[in-house]
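Page 37, continued from 36.
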C-alpha cells in the first residue's frame, strides 16, 4: 500500500483504483448527509459518482492483470498504453471507453483465463456476484458513455425523459392524481387570452431511483 503515498502515475494501475476510491467515498459522504433523500435531486449526483467508481475499478483490474501476467496489449507491451479487447477482437485504448459492460466482460475473461493460478496462489474469491452482470447490463443500458447522470441531454433522448422531475400533463390527469391522494405541484402556462396552453406537474423519476438502488449493490 506504499504506492498510496506516490504520484498517481507511479501506482501499479496508474491511479485508477485510488481515484475510484475517492469517488466511492464522496458518494458515501453524500448519502450520509442529514439532508440526503432518495429523490431526483440527491440521487442523480450519487449515481454518477458510483457509476464512475465502478468504471475506474474495472479499468484498474484490467491493468493489474496485464501487468501481473505480462499480457501484451495487442501489439504493445503489457506495461505500455493500456487497452481493452472487445468481443469482436478489436483493441481500443482503455482511456477512450466508458462502457462498463465491455470492461466487465474483458476483466471477467482475464480472471477466468488465469483461474488456476489465482486459486493456487491467492486466498481471494475471484468471482463476481451472481447478479453483477445483470446489474452492469442495466446500468450500461442507460449510461454506456458516462453522460446520462452528468448532463440533461445524453445520447439517448428517450431515456433522458426519465430524468424529468416535471412532465407535461392534462387537467384530467391532474384531477386523477388528486383523487388518488397524490400531492401535486402544477404549473399552468396560459396564452394571451388566459387559456391554458400547457400544464406541467411533478413526477417522481422512478428509473433514477431504481438505478440508485442497483448502484448501491454493485460496489
Amino acid at each position: 500500500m506504499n504506492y498510496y503515498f506516490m504520484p498517481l502515475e507511479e501506482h501499479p494501475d496508474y491511479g485508477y483504483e485510488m481515484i475510484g476510491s475517492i469517488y466511492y467515498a464522496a458518494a458515501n459522504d453524500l448519502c450520509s448527509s442529514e439532508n440526503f433523500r432518495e429523490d431526483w435531486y440527491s440521487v442523480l449526483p450519487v449515481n454518477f459518482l458510483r457509476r464512475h467508481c465502478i468504471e475506474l475499478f474495472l479499468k484498474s483490474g484490467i491493468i493489474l492483470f496485464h501487468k501481473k501476467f505480462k499480457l501484451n496489449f495487442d501489439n504493445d507491451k503489457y506495461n505500455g498504453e493500456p487497452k481493452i479487447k472487445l468481443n469482436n477482437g478489436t483493441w481500443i485504448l482503455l482511456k477512450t471507453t466508458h462502457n462498463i459492460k465491455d470492461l466487465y466482460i474483458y476483466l471477467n475473461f482475464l480472471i477466468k483465463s488465469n483461474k488456476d493460478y489465482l486459486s493456487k496462489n491467492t486466498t481471494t474469491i475471484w468471482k463476481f456476484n451472481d447478479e453483477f452482470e445483470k446489474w452492469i447490463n442495466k446500468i450500461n443500458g442507460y449510461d454506456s458513455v458516462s453522460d446520462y447522470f452528468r448532463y440533461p441531454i445524453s445520447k439517448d433522448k428517450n431515456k433522458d425523459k426519465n430524468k424529468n422531475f416535471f412532465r407535461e400533463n392534462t387537467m384530467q390527469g391532474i384531477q386523477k392524481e388528486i383523487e388518488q391522494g397524490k400531492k401535486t405541484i402544477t404549473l399552468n402556462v396560459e396564452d394571451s387570452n388566459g387559456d391554458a396552453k400547457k400544464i406541467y406537474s411533478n413526477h417522481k423519476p422512478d428509473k433514477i431511483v431504481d438505478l440508485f438502488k442497483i448502484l448501491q449493490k454493485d460496489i
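The mean pLDDT is 92. Flag for discussion at group meeting. The chain has two domains: 2-160+205-218, 166-202.
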